[in-house]
Specification:
single chain, globular, about 375 residues, about 55% helix, mainly alpha
Length: about 375
Protein backbone atom coordinates (compact mmCIF):
# COMPACT_ATOMS: atom_id res chain seq x y z
CA UNK A 1 0.00 0.00 0.00
CA UNK A 2 1.21 3.55 -0.74
CA UNK A 3 2.56 5.34 2.31
CA UNK A 4 0.98 8.68 1.40
CA UNK A 5 -2.21 9.84 -0.31
CA UNK A 6 -2.68 11.36 -3.76
CA UNK A 7 -3.35 14.79 -2.21
CA UNK A 8 -0.31 14.61 0.06
CA UNK A 9 1.94 13.62 -2.84
CA UNK A 10 0.52 16.39 -5.00
CA UNK A 11 0.96 19.10 -2.37
CA UNK A 12 4.49 17.95 -1.61
CA UNK A 13 5.34 18.12 -5.33
CA UNK A 14 3.84 21.59 -5.69
CA UNK A 15 5.90 22.79 -2.74
CA UNK A 16 9.08 21.30 -4.21
CA UNK A 17 8.44 23.07 -7.54
CA UNK A 18 7.03 26.35 -6.26
CA UNK A 19 10.15 28.27 -7.34
CA UNK A 20 10.05 27.12 -10.99
CA UNK A 21 9.08 29.57 -13.72
CA UNK A 22 6.48 28.98 -16.39
CA UNK A 23 8.97 27.84 -19.01
CA UNK A 24 12.35 26.19 -19.37
CA UNK A 25 15.23 25.49 -21.73
CA UNK A 26 18.24 27.36 -23.07
CA UNK A 27 17.37 29.49 -26.08
CA UNK A 28 13.85 28.03 -26.24
CA UNK A 29 10.57 28.53 -24.40
CA UNK A 30 9.24 25.13 -23.40
CA UNK A 31 6.35 24.83 -20.96
CA UNK A 32 7.02 23.83 -17.37
CA UNK A 33 5.54 20.33 -17.20
CA UNK A 34 6.49 19.60 -13.60
CA UNK A 35 3.16 20.10 -11.81
CA UNK A 36 1.25 18.32 -14.60
CA UNK A 37 3.63 15.36 -14.64
CA UNK A 38 3.61 15.01 -10.85
CA UNK A 39 -0.19 15.11 -10.68
CA UNK A 40 -0.53 12.52 -13.47
CA UNK A 41 2.06 10.26 -11.82
CA UNK A 42 0.16 10.44 -8.54
CA UNK A 43 -3.11 9.72 -10.35
CA UNK A 44 -1.52 6.64 -11.91
CA UNK A 45 -1.05 5.36 -8.36
CA UNK A 46 2.70 5.96 -8.03
CA UNK A 47 2.40 8.41 -5.16
CA UNK A 48 5.52 7.10 -3.40
CA UNK A 49 7.60 7.90 -6.49
CA UNK A 50 6.42 11.49 -7.03
CA UNK A 51 9.05 13.20 -4.86
CA UNK A 52 11.90 11.30 -6.54
CA UNK A 53 10.46 12.06 -9.95
CA UNK A 54 10.34 15.78 -9.13
CA UNK A 55 14.06 15.65 -8.38
CA UNK A 56 14.75 13.93 -11.71
CA UNK A 57 12.61 16.44 -13.56
CA UNK A 58 14.30 19.47 -11.99
CA UNK A 59 17.76 18.20 -13.00
CA UNK A 60 16.79 17.45 -16.61
CA UNK A 61 16.48 21.04 -17.84
CA UNK A 62 16.96 24.48 -16.35
CA UNK A 63 13.78 26.51 -15.82
CA UNK A 64 13.47 30.22 -16.40
CA UNK A 65 12.97 32.60 -13.50
CA UNK A 66 9.33 33.21 -12.55
CA UNK A 67 8.18 36.53 -14.08
CA UNK A 68 7.62 39.28 -11.55
CA UNK A 69 4.28 41.06 -11.20
CA UNK A 70 4.51 44.73 -12.14
CA UNK A 71 1.15 46.23 -13.04
CA UNK A 72 -2.21 45.27 -11.59
CA UNK A 73 -4.92 43.83 -13.84
CA UNK A 74 -8.57 44.61 -13.10
CA UNK A 75 -10.79 41.57 -13.85
CA UNK A 76 -13.86 43.81 -13.95
CA UNK A 77 -12.37 46.14 -16.57
CA UNK A 78 -11.96 44.54 -20.00
CA UNK A 79 -9.74 47.43 -21.13
CA UNK A 80 -7.34 46.44 -18.34
CA UNK A 81 -7.00 42.69 -18.90
CA UNK A 82 -7.73 42.17 -22.59
CA UNK A 83 -4.59 43.97 -23.90
CA UNK A 84 -2.52 41.70 -21.63
CA UNK A 85 -3.74 38.49 -23.32
CA UNK A 86 -0.83 36.84 -25.10
CA UNK A 87 1.73 39.16 -23.47
CA UNK A 88 4.10 36.74 -21.75
CA UNK A 89 5.90 39.57 -19.98
CA UNK A 90 2.62 40.05 -18.06
CA UNK A 91 2.56 36.45 -16.74
CA UNK A 92 3.39 37.65 -13.24
CA UNK A 93 0.52 40.13 -13.41
CA UNK A 94 -1.84 37.38 -14.53
CA UNK A 95 -0.71 35.10 -11.71
CA UNK A 96 -1.26 37.82 -9.12
CA UNK A 97 -4.74 38.47 -10.54
CA UNK A 98 -5.77 34.81 -10.36
CA UNK A 99 -4.26 34.28 -6.90
CA UNK A 100 -6.35 37.21 -5.68
CA UNK A 101 -9.49 35.96 -7.43
CA UNK A 102 -9.09 32.47 -5.99
CA UNK A 103 -8.63 33.89 -2.51
CA UNK A 104 -11.93 35.76 -2.80
CA UNK A 105 -14.15 33.19 -4.56
CA UNK A 106 -14.55 29.42 -4.99
CA UNK A 107 -12.30 28.00 -7.69
CA UNK A 108 -15.30 26.89 -9.78
CA UNK A 109 -16.62 30.46 -9.83
CA UNK A 110 -13.27 31.77 -11.07
CA UNK A 111 -13.03 28.99 -13.66
CA UNK A 112 -16.51 29.70 -15.05
CA UNK A 113 -15.79 33.44 -15.21
CA UNK A 114 -12.54 33.10 -17.15
CA UNK A 115 -13.13 30.02 -19.31
CA UNK A 116 -15.10 31.86 -22.05
CA UNK A 117 -12.61 34.75 -21.96
CA UNK A 118 -9.64 32.44 -22.51
CA UNK A 119 -11.35 29.88 -24.75
CA UNK A 120 -10.57 31.56 -28.12
CA UNK A 121 -6.89 31.24 -27.18
CA UNK A 122 -7.10 27.51 -26.44
CA UNK A 123 -3.97 26.85 -28.51
CA UNK A 124 -1.91 28.82 -25.95
CA UNK A 125 1.50 27.24 -25.38
CA UNK A 126 0.63 24.31 -27.67
CA UNK A 127 -2.45 23.77 -25.42
CA UNK A 128 -0.35 23.62 -22.23
CA UNK A 129 -2.39 26.46 -20.72
CA UNK A 130 -5.60 24.45 -20.73
CA UNK A 131 -3.81 21.19 -19.87
CA UNK A 132 -2.08 22.67 -16.82
CA UNK A 133 -5.38 24.23 -15.79
CA UNK A 134 -7.14 20.87 -16.09
CA UNK A 135 -4.57 19.01 -13.99
CA UNK A 136 -4.96 21.68 -11.31
CA UNK A 137 -8.76 21.37 -11.45
CA UNK A 138 -8.56 17.60 -10.99
CA UNK A 139 -6.34 18.07 -7.95
CA UNK A 140 -8.73 20.58 -6.41
CA UNK A 141 -11.80 18.45 -7.06
CA UNK A 142 -10.14 15.33 -5.66
CA UNK A 143 -9.19 17.19 -2.50
CA UNK A 144 -12.74 18.42 -1.83
CA UNK A 145 -12.83 20.55 1.30
CA UNK A 146 -9.16 19.78 1.87
CA UNK A 147 -7.88 22.00 -0.92
CA UNK A 148 -4.73 23.93 -0.07
CA UNK A 149 -3.24 27.32 -0.92
CA UNK A 150 -0.63 25.48 -3.03
CA UNK A 151 -3.36 23.84 -5.13
CA UNK A 152 -5.20 27.12 -5.61
CA UNK A 153 -1.92 28.74 -6.60
CA UNK A 154 -1.35 25.99 -9.15
CA UNK A 155 -4.75 26.71 -10.71
CA UNK A 156 -3.81 30.40 -10.75
CA UNK A 157 -0.62 29.50 -12.60
CA UNK A 158 -2.42 27.28 -15.10
CA UNK A 159 -4.85 30.08 -15.94
CA UNK A 160 -2.03 32.64 -15.94
CA UNK A 161 0.02 30.62 -18.42
CA UNK A 162 -3.03 30.24 -20.63
CA UNK A 163 -3.63 34.00 -20.53
CA UNK A 164 0.02 34.99 -20.98
CA UNK A 165 0.57 32.62 -23.94
CA UNK A 166 -2.95 33.21 -25.31
CA UNK A 167 -2.89 32.45 -29.03
CA UNK A 168 -6.05 32.81 -31.09
CA UNK A 169 -6.11 30.76 -34.29
CA UNK A 170 -7.68 32.44 -37.33
CA UNK A 171 -11.40 32.06 -37.96
CA UNK A 172 -14.34 31.08 -35.83
CA UNK A 173 -15.18 27.35 -35.75
CA UNK A 174 -18.76 26.09 -35.52
CA UNK A 175 -20.15 22.60 -35.10
CA UNK A 176 -22.74 22.45 -37.87
CA UNK A 177 -20.93 20.50 -40.58
CA UNK A 178 -21.69 17.18 -42.27
CA UNK A 179 -18.85 15.02 -40.97
CA UNK A 180 -18.31 12.73 -38.02
CA UNK A 181 -14.88 13.15 -36.43
CA UNK A 182 -13.18 10.26 -38.24
CA UNK A 183 -14.50 11.43 -41.61
CA UNK A 184 -13.46 15.01 -40.87
CA UNK A 185 -9.89 13.91 -40.12
CA UNK A 186 -9.81 11.78 -43.26
CA UNK A 187 -11.26 14.60 -45.37
CA UNK A 188 -8.90 17.28 -44.09
CA UNK A 189 -6.31 18.08 -46.77
CA UNK A 190 -2.66 17.84 -45.75
CA UNK A 191 0.04 20.16 -47.02
CA UNK A 192 2.86 18.26 -48.77
CA UNK A 193 6.43 19.09 -47.86
CA UNK A 194 8.67 20.97 -50.26
CA UNK A 195 11.69 19.59 -48.41
CA UNK A 196 12.47 17.99 -45.06
CA UNK A 197 10.30 18.83 -42.05
CA UNK A 198 12.65 21.31 -40.40
CA UNK A 199 12.29 22.99 -36.99
CA UNK A 200 10.62 26.02 -38.54
CA UNK A 201 8.18 24.17 -40.81
CA UNK A 202 5.43 23.69 -38.26
CA UNK A 203 5.85 27.23 -36.92
CA UNK A 204 5.55 28.67 -40.45
CA UNK A 205 2.43 26.60 -41.11
CA UNK A 206 0.84 27.77 -37.88
CA UNK A 207 1.66 31.37 -38.75
CA UNK A 208 0.01 30.98 -42.18
CA UNK A 209 -2.92 28.71 -41.27
CA UNK A 210 -5.50 30.98 -42.90
CA UNK A 211 -3.68 30.63 -46.23
CA UNK A 212 -3.43 26.84 -46.22
CA UNK A 213 -5.83 25.00 -48.57
CA UNK A 214 -8.75 23.52 -46.68
CA UNK A 215 -8.21 25.32 -43.38
CA UNK A 216 -11.16 27.69 -43.78
CA UNK A 217 -13.45 24.83 -44.75
CA UNK A 218 -12.27 22.77 -41.77
CA UNK A 219 -13.78 25.30 -39.34
CA UNK A 220 -17.32 24.26 -40.35
CA UNK A 221 -16.62 20.63 -41.23
CA UNK A 222 -17.57 18.87 -37.99
CA UNK A 223 -21.08 17.79 -37.07
CA UNK A 224 -22.42 18.49 -33.56
CA UNK A 225 -22.36 15.65 -31.04
CA UNK A 226 -22.81 15.12 -27.33
CA UNK A 227 -19.67 16.21 -25.51
CA UNK A 228 -18.65 12.86 -23.95
CA UNK A 229 -18.95 11.02 -27.26
CA UNK A 230 -17.11 13.68 -29.27
CA UNK A 231 -14.28 13.82 -26.75
CA UNK A 232 -13.89 10.05 -27.01
CA UNK A 233 -13.92 10.28 -30.79
CA UNK A 234 -11.21 12.94 -30.63
CA UNK A 235 -8.91 11.07 -28.28
CA UNK A 236 -9.31 7.75 -30.12
CA UNK A 237 -8.80 9.36 -33.53
CA UNK A 238 -5.71 11.26 -32.43
CA UNK A 239 -4.28 8.18 -30.75
CA UNK A 240 -4.62 6.71 -34.25
CA UNK A 241 -2.93 9.79 -35.76
CA UNK A 242 -0.06 9.42 -33.29
CA UNK A 243 0.36 5.75 -34.17
CA UNK A 244 0.17 6.48 -37.89
CA UNK A 245 3.04 9.00 -37.94
CA UNK A 246 6.25 7.47 -36.56
CA UNK A 247 8.13 9.77 -38.94
CA UNK A 248 6.98 12.90 -37.06
CA UNK A 249 8.89 14.22 -34.05
CA UNK A 250 7.10 12.29 -31.30
CA UNK A 251 5.96 15.03 -28.90
CA UNK A 252 3.57 17.56 -30.53
CA UNK A 253 0.97 15.06 -31.78
CA UNK A 254 0.61 13.74 -28.23
CA UNK A 255 -1.40 16.86 -27.48
CA UNK A 256 -4.07 15.73 -29.92
CA UNK A 257 -4.99 13.28 -27.13
CA UNK A 258 -3.95 15.10 -23.96
CA UNK A 259 -5.78 18.34 -24.84
CA UNK A 260 -9.28 16.81 -25.29
CA UNK A 261 -8.60 14.48 -22.34
CA UNK A 262 -7.82 17.58 -20.28
CA UNK A 263 -11.00 19.33 -21.43
CA UNK A 264 -12.97 16.28 -20.28
CA UNK A 265 -11.66 16.89 -16.74
CA UNK A 266 -12.96 20.46 -16.74
CA UNK A 267 -16.34 20.28 -18.53
CA UNK A 268 -18.28 18.88 -15.52
CA UNK A 269 -17.41 22.09 -13.66
CA UNK A 270 -18.68 24.38 -16.44
CA UNK A 271 -22.23 25.36 -17.42
CA UNK A 272 -23.67 23.33 -20.29
CA UNK A 273 -23.84 26.35 -22.61
CA UNK A 274 -20.03 26.41 -22.72
CA UNK A 275 -19.77 22.84 -24.00
CA UNK A 276 -20.38 23.42 -27.71
CA UNK A 277 -18.10 26.48 -28.10
CA UNK A 278 -15.40 24.57 -26.22
CA UNK A 279 -15.70 21.55 -28.50
CA UNK A 280 -15.67 23.77 -31.58
CA UNK A 281 -12.46 25.49 -30.47
CA UNK A 282 -10.98 22.11 -29.61
CA UNK A 283 -11.65 20.83 -33.12
CA UNK A 284 -9.98 23.98 -34.51
CA UNK A 285 -6.90 23.16 -32.40
CA UNK A 286 -6.96 19.53 -33.54
CA UNK A 287 -7.11 20.51 -37.19
CA UNK A 288 -4.22 22.95 -36.62
CA UNK A 289 -2.11 20.07 -35.30
CA UNK A 290 -2.80 18.10 -38.48
CA UNK A 291 -2.06 21.02 -40.78
CA UNK A 292 1.14 21.93 -38.94
CA UNK A 293 2.72 18.58 -38.14
CA UNK A 294 1.60 16.15 -40.87
CA UNK A 295 2.09 16.30 -44.62
CA UNK A 296 -0.01 13.24 -45.56
CA UNK A 297 -2.21 10.63 -43.90
CA UNK A 298 0.61 8.08 -43.87
CA UNK A 299 -0.65 5.07 -41.84
CA UNK A 300 -3.69 6.72 -40.25
CA UNK A 301 -6.74 4.48 -40.21
CA UNK A 302 -4.71 1.30 -40.74
CA UNK A 303 -3.39 -1.44 -38.48
CA UNK A 304 0.24 -0.79 -39.44
CA UNK A 305 0.91 0.19 -35.83
CA UNK A 306 0.31 -3.42 -34.82
CA UNK A 307 3.80 -4.39 -35.92
CA UNK A 308 5.32 -1.65 -33.77
CA UNK A 309 3.36 -2.67 -30.68
CA UNK A 310 3.37 -6.45 -31.10
CA UNK A 311 4.89 -6.84 -27.63
CA UNK A 312 2.39 -4.49 -25.97
CA UNK A 313 2.48 -5.16 -22.20
CA UNK A 314 -0.65 -5.70 -20.08
CA UNK A 315 -2.60 -2.57 -19.21
CA UNK A 316 -1.61 -2.67 -15.56
CA UNK A 317 2.06 -2.48 -16.56
CA UNK A 318 1.79 0.60 -18.79
CA UNK A 319 1.53 3.04 -15.89
CA UNK A 320 4.52 1.47 -14.14
CA UNK A 321 6.53 1.63 -17.37
CA UNK A 322 5.64 5.32 -17.77
CA UNK A 323 6.78 6.04 -14.22
CA UNK A 324 10.07 4.22 -14.84
CA UNK A 325 10.53 5.96 -18.21
CA UNK A 326 10.17 9.32 -16.45
CA UNK A 327 9.59 11.67 -19.37
CA UNK A 328 6.81 14.07 -18.45
CA UNK A 329 5.09 13.75 -21.84
CA UNK A 330 5.10 9.97 -21.56
CA UNK A 331 3.62 10.10 -18.05
CA UNK A 332 0.84 12.53 -19.01
CA UNK A 333 0.10 10.73 -22.27
CA UNK A 334 -0.01 7.29 -20.66
CA UNK A 335 -2.34 8.51 -17.92
CA UNK A 336 -4.65 10.17 -20.48
CA UNK A 337 -4.70 7.07 -22.72
CA UNK A 338 -5.48 4.72 -19.84
CA UNK A 339 -8.22 7.04 -18.57
CA UNK A 340 -9.77 7.29 -22.03
CA UNK A 341 -9.47 3.52 -22.52
CA UNK A 342 -11.47 2.97 -19.32
CA UNK A 343 -14.32 4.94 -20.92
CA UNK A 344 -14.00 3.39 -24.37
CA UNK A 345 -11.89 0.20 -24.64
CA UNK A 346 -10.20 0.97 -27.96
CA UNK A 347 -6.85 -0.83 -28.45
CA UNK A 348 -5.33 2.29 -30.02
CA UNK A 349 -5.09 3.96 -26.60
CA UNK A 350 -2.66 1.51 -24.95
CA UNK A 351 -0.87 1.05 -28.27
CA UNK A 352 -0.28 4.81 -28.56
CA UNK A 353 0.93 5.04 -24.96
CA UNK A 354 3.35 2.19 -25.54
CA UNK A 355 4.53 3.74 -28.81
CA UNK A 356 5.31 7.01 -27.02
CA UNK A 357 7.28 5.12 -24.38
CA UNK A 358 9.43 3.72 -27.17
CA UNK A 359 9.70 6.83 -29.34
CA UNK A 360 10.54 9.40 -26.66
CA UNK A 361 13.88 9.42 -24.86
CA UNK A 362 13.83 8.46 -21.18
CA UNK A 363 14.10 11.28 -18.67
CA UNK A 364 17.59 10.36 -17.45
CA UNK A 365 18.98 9.41 -20.85
CA UNK A 366 19.76 12.91 -22.14
CA UNK A 367 20.02 13.88 -25.80
CA UNK A 368 17.47 12.29 -28.12
CA UNK A 369 14.28 14.22 -28.65
CA UNK A 370 14.41 16.14 -25.38
CA UNK A 371 14.96 19.85 -25.94
CA UNK A 372 12.99 20.17 -29.18
CA UNK A 373 9.76 22.16 -29.23
CA UNK A 374 7.24 20.57 -26.87
Amino acid sequence: MPSISYSDALNDALERMDDLGYERGQGVDLANHGPMGAEALALLGHVDEVARWVGRYRKAMEHHEPPAARFALDPADESSWRPALGAFRRAGDWERLFVRELAEAHWREVLVRWWPRLLPGLFAGLTHGVIRTAHAVRGLYASGDGTTALQRKELARGLAYWAARYSELPGRPRLHGPHELSDAVATLPRVPLDGPMGPGTARHRLDTLAELPGYGESLEMLAPQQAPRLLSEMTAQFADVYLGHPEVYPVPLIHGVTAPAAVRLVLPHLPHELYEPTLARLWQVQSAFLFAFTSDRRDEGTTAWGAETADLPPLDELGARAAEHGDEHVIKFTEACLREYALRPDPRYPAAAFAAQRRITRLDAGGGVRGAAS
